[in-house]
Amino acid sequence: MLPGLSVELRIAVPGVEWALMIDGADVQWAEEDRAGLAFVRIRETERQRLRELVTARLTKEADTGDDAQAELIPFEFQKLEAVLSKDPELAIRKGLAWFAQDRTEFRFRGGSLLGRAFPTCTLEFATSLGELVKTGGDREADFSLALLQNYLGSTSSDRVLKEMVSRFSHDDRIMEGVRTIINSTDLTSSSGEFALAEAWRVKKESLTPWLTDQRQAVKSFAELHVAELDRMIATERHRVETEREMRERSRHEDESGHDHGYRPKPF
User: Fold this and answer.
1) In contact, 161 and 181? CB cutoff 8 Å
2) Are 157 and 181 in contact (CB under 8 A)?
3) What is the DSSP string of the chain?
4) Which of 183-187, 190-194, 231-235 shows the lowest mean pLDDT across its residues?
5) Domain locations in the chain?
6) 68-90, pLDDT tens digit by residue?
7) N or C terminus of the chain with fewer C-beta within 10 Å?
8) The pTM is what?
9) Which stretch of 58-62, 103-107, 121-125 has the lowest confidence by average pLDDT?
């Protein structure tokens, strides 16, 4: 099996009488006894059979809770997103399994797939993810933080973040991840020199509901983070105003031809 080789496949599946027939597959990579294949020619009837088999496998593992023999699902499998989008709990279970297998590439593989299945963090998806955080440990928290990278700048994932604060308020590493996600801004909705400061102001306002949360850990976190955002906003405004003043001074000097006694301070 060498990269670039084209092959035909007959896949024998336990419990299935007739082998799956793949008319054309290209070898993408090969190492020792493993190889990656891209299906380039497959009849519609066989595509449907393959889709049904993968769906049945996913559903069975979700129902039994047995991931002992779970394997990497082909992340670019046609219409797999549609299968997962109908069942948030199934999607999260499979996503967690993929995350455990390869944390480094998860964001670009399994995380990307779940992002396509759930382009917005729906209430059902956020609720299921929040329950995972509530009952899980560090691995589940890290998985959730990685998954929430798909929804930066959105408040739709606040339910999950609140649960994370409530559960891991004393874990500095996880709390830093929460703050990073909260501070992520969408600059497309703001313009001008103070765009970043304005985006942070909007972010601060979005934390208002956190201040009345019944969980003391969530309320305390929100109070501290609102104060931090106030400092960030003030610092950013000061930076912009200083740069504006320097530009005006430089422009005036260029137009007048002299500096009116101004000298740059030596280093």
Assistant:
1) yes
2) yes
3) --TT-EEEEEE--TT-SS-EEEEEEEEEEEETTEEEEEEEE--HHHHHHHHHHHHHHHHHHHHH---TT-----TT-TTHHHHHHT-HHHHHHHHHHHHHH-HHHHTTTHHHHHHHH-SS--HHHHHHHHHHHHH--HHHHHHHHHHGGGGTT-STTHHHHHHHHHHHTT-HHHHHHHHHHHH---GGG--STTHHHHHHHHHHHHTGGGGG-SSHHHHHHHHHHHHHHHHHHHHHHHHHHHHHHHHHHHHHHHHHSS-TT--PPP-
4) 183-187
5) 185-267
6) 444 444 544 556 777 788 899 98
7) C
8) 0.65
9) 58-62
In the block, residue with structure tokens 């440990």: 137
What are the tens digits of pLDDT across the range 205-245? 999 999 999 999 999 999 999 999 999 999 999 999 999 88
Tokens (6 digits) for 202? 């909007």
Amino acid at site 8: E
